[in-house]
Write a structure and sequence with these properties.
321 residues; alpha/beta; Rossmann fold; Helix Hairpins
Length: 321
């Protein structure tokens, strides 16, 4: 859990100090508690409420996996923002705001890739093949890119939100974010216009103690969102592995039983052989003698005897008997 916001801690950090009354922006009137010695005093109860509101929104953005870009180029905020943002692994701009950082993000990404190309050249030995003058120029270019864009080298797409310290100084960043409908969280002093800011944190944006106090709460909420995202991912992985283990292996389908072999059809019984017709009984010789030659020839022809035409009766009787 992020640290609970105590009004006493904010008071000790000097968050309540505003600008001179003659420099104020009338739109900040709802957040001003009183005027003392020509200086506006910010209502810290409203500041605490606004920090809690901003923290809830930042936690959701961090939990969704989107990046939050921290912007602070003023001297007293640079080191604090760089340190706090780096702790939660978020991109930040602490040098000059590169024009078109958001609206022309493709070109900015090309410059970041150029930096990676130079690093690759140094690793594979190509850098050493260049002349002394060229190496010096490449080194200078690398140092310049690192100074301005080194902190956003891991930002591969537009950020989910911007956190700005001093909206008056970072007015270009505000305009670009408004153009792209990117939510803006900002520390807004009494001389700034809160109308353009989605999540206003009325506070002293000039004192390093005040900036550190606000950023400690903000980065704490971001860290909480990131830890929630990590725990959700871990739970999902564990759940997936449990489901995988619990699912029983599909049982092998029972093998289809072999169909009973068709019984061989009984062999057709061989038809009984036709009994041979009884041979015609040969007539005795006495009967043959009593028959005429024509009858004997007919009998001989029936038996298949050849040459019967030239045979005499005695020959026919001999052949038939």
């Amino acid at each position: 859990m992020a640290n609970k916001i105590e009004v006493k801690d904010l008071l000790e950090a000097g968050v309540h100090f505003g600008h001179l009354t003659r420099k104020w922006n009338p739109s900040m009137a709802p957040y001003i508690y009183m005027e003392r010695n020509g200086i506006h005093v910010i209502n810290l109860y409203k500041t605490a409420a606004k920090i809690e509101e901003a923290n809830e929104a930042l936690k959701k953005i961090a939990a969704s996996g989107r990046k939050i870009l921290f912007v602070a180029t003023k001297k007293q905020a640079k080191d604090i923002v760089a340190e706090k943002a780096a702790k939660v692994n978020m991109p930040y701009i602490t040098e000059r705001w590169p024009g078109g950082m958001l609206t022309n993000f493709v070109t900015i990404r090309k410059a970041v890739k150029k930096m990676a190309t130079i690093d690759r050249m140094k690793k594979d030995g190509t850098f050493l093949t260049l002349s002394k003058k060229e190496r010096l120029q490449v080194d200078r270019l690398r140092a310049k890119l690192e100074k301005n864009l080194g902190s956003i080298s891991d930002m591969t797409r537009l950020p989910g939100a911007l956190f700005i310290v001093d909206t008056m100084r970072e007015h270009i960043a505000v305009k670009e974010a408004l153009k792209l409908n990117i939510p803006i969280f900002a520390m807004v002093d009494t001389n700034s216009d809160p109308k353009q800011i989605d999540y206003v944190i009325p506070s002293n944006d000039d004192a390093s103690k005040s900036i550190e106090a606000i950023l400690s709460h903000v980065t704490g909420a971001v860290a909480e969102g990131l830890s929630e995202r990590k725990s959700e991912k871990t739970a999902e992985k564990e759940g997936a592995s449990e489901v995988k283990e619990a699912a029983p292996k599909a049982e092998a389908a029972p093998k289809a039983e072999a169909a009973p072999k068709a019984e061989a059809a009984p062999k057709a019984e061989a038809a009984p052989k036709a009994e041979a017709a009884p041979k015609a009984e040969v007539a005795p010789a006495e009967d043959l003698n009593s028959k005429t030659v024509v009858e004997l020839k007919e009998m001989a022809s029936a038996k298949g005897i050849e040459g019967i035409s030239s045979m005499k009766k005695a020959d026919l009787v001999a052949a038939l008997s």
